[in-house]
């Protein structure tokens, strides 16, 4: 939740909007998660890295599960196919959530557009390995996926594309959207990467998702996940994030889990500079509905569950865990719930760069809450984090928090692998200055140094 833009009616609720895009190698760490003593105080136990220098994994180890809870060192961690604890570090690969539906993928053969900086638009995973990354998060647009070909359509309810109010738009103009997603997952897997598929942009009815809605919906998101889960359930390295950043105003974690009715749809308008309210009543799909939808396909993949306030306030997550107690359709054996907490961490909105206030986690999230989630038996992964733009040489927020995430056993995925491109050129969100992975000054360089140090150092917990 990168660029933070407000409409007049939403200033009071910290509306975090992202214009056009809204979060090594393998090995991981071994050790124990945070635990709670009798008084309920969280004590962080050390995770020891076992990364190799290649930055990738392969073979049967390229599988991710949530470790069975109970017993010493079991709960609160991701494990691979060999039973080794995984610590994820990586990037968001933006583009597929916005480039096709906005008509911005005209100059490349794929729906990615030029966002990733490559000539054909396809992600090049050899470049990601230079950062010792082991996971990529791919944000998706439900209308582009659901269209399933160039004959699909949706309605531009607020004239985002400038073709008129309620103009009909093709969200998959090339007709290659599903193939491009599958190509990325297959290529990532072949290169030894884990993958997070994230429902980033959604919309109810037949509206075009030109932005992020409040929450997944029953109109289109359920069938999106029925299809996506069916398509990728055979990939044990793929995790599903049912919705990017819920921002249902005034809603609690319990309501997000159960689902609720919305009376307003916030549509992209005015060229994306703000959200525009559209009076429309529709059903928001709760976490329980989305989980059961995915499991009904037979998918046993790990599911990453977010929280309120654009996925930033994690303090109510543990008390409102959705149900994943029913084994996937056709599953045999003992089923262990495969859910983990997704959390987004950015500097406090509006604070001056370099001040103490800047380094405060946005929207009330806390490291203590994350540690308690881990102690409760559920892993935590920051599927988006960020810092200052490329005009500076330091990254105080990253410097403050990544080391603390390491010592707590928290994984993290930066926003975003975004070399300067004609599609989207906002320097504040760029970790990379070139398509080959040269870090940007500040945020990119500091994150690169940390990723490489953590992956290769004899004592990764000493990394700055």
Briefly note the CATH topology name: TIM Barrel
Mean pLDDT: 84
Q: Give the CA-CA distance, first to last residue.
A: 25 Å
Strand order within the widest sheet? 13-12-9-8-19-18-17-16
- Which series of helices and strands comes N to C? EEEEEEEEHEHEEHEHEHEEHEHEHEHEH
Helix tally equals 10
At the first level of CATH, the class is Alpha Beta
Poorly predicted segments: 3-55
Q: Could you write a compact summary of the structure shown?
A:
The chain has 464 residues and is α/β, with parallel strands linked by helices.
Q: What's the SSE blueprint?
A:
Elements: E1 29-31, E2 35-36, E3 42-43, E4 47-49, E5 65-66, E6 78-79, E7 85-86, E8 89-92, H1 125-129, E9 135-141, H2 142-147, E10 154-156, E11 167-169, H3 177-190, E12 194-201, H4 221-232, E13 238-241, H5 253-258, E14 260-269, E15 274-284, H6 287-296, E16 303-305, H7 308-311, E17 339-345, H8 367-375, E18 380-385, H9 396-408, E19 411-414, H10 443-456
Parallel strand pairs: 8-9, 8-19, 9-12, 12-13, 16-17, 17-18, 18-19
Antiparallel strand pairs: 1-4, 2-3, 5-6, 6-7, 10-11, 14-15
């Amino acid at each position: 939740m990168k660029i933070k833009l407000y409409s007049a009616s939403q200033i009071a609720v910290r509306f975090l909007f992202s214009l056009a895009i809204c979060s090594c190698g393998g090995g991981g760490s071994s050790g124990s998660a945070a635990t709670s003593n009798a008084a309920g105080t969280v004590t962080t136990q050390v995770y020891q890295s076992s990364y190799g220098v290649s930055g990738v994994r392969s073979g049967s180890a390229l599988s991710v599960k949530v470790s069975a809870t109970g017993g010493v060192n079991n709960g609160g961690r991701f494990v691979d196919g060999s039973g080794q604890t995984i610590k994820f570090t990586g990037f968001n690969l933006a583009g597929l959530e916005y480039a096709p539906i906005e008509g911005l993928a005209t100059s490349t053969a794929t729906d990615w557009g030029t966002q990733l900086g490559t000539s054909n638009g396809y992600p090049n995973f050899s470049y990601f390995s230079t950062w010792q990354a082991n996971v990529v998060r791919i944000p998706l647009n439900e209308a582009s996926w659901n269209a399933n070909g160039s004959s699909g359509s949706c309605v531009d309810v607020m004239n985002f594309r400038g073709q008129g109010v309620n103009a009909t738009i093709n969200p998959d103009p090339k007709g290659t959207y599903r193939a491009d997603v599958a190509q990325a997952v297959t290529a990532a897997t072949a290169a030894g990467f884990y993958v997070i598929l994230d429902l980033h942009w959604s919309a109810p009815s037949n509206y075009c998702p030109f932005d992020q809605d409040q929450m997944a919906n029953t109109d289109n998101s359920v069938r999106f996940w029925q299809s996506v889960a069916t398509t990728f359930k055979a990939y044990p390295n793929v995790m599903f994030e049912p919705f990017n950043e819920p921002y249902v105003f005034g809603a609690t974690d319990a309501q997000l889990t159960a689902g609720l009715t919305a009376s307003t749809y916030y549509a992209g308008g005015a060229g994306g500079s703000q959200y525009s309210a559209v009076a429309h009543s529709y059903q928001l799909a709760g976490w329980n509905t989305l989980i059961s939808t995915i499991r009904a396909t037979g998918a046993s993949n790990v599911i990453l569950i977010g929280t309120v306030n654009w996925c930033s306030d994690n303090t109510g997550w543990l008390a409102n865990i959705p149900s994943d107690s029913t084994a996937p359709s056709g599953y045999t054996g003992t089923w262990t719930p495969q859910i983990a907490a997704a959390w987004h961490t950015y500097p406090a909105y509006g604070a001056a760069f370099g001040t103490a206030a800047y380094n405060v986690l946005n929207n009330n999230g806390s490291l203590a809450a994350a540690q308690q989630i881990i102690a409760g038996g559920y892993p935590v992964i920051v599927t988006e984090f960020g810092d200052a733009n490329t005009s500076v040489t330091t990254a105080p927020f990253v410097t403050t928090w990544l080391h603390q995430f390491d010592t707590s056993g928290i994984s993290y995925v930066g926003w975003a692998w975004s070399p300067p491109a004609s599609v989207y050129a906002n320097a504040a969100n760029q970790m990379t200055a070139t398509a080959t992975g040269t870090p940007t000054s500040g945020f990119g360089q500091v994150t690169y140094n940390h990723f490489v140090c953590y992956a290769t150092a004899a004592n990764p917990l000493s990394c700055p």
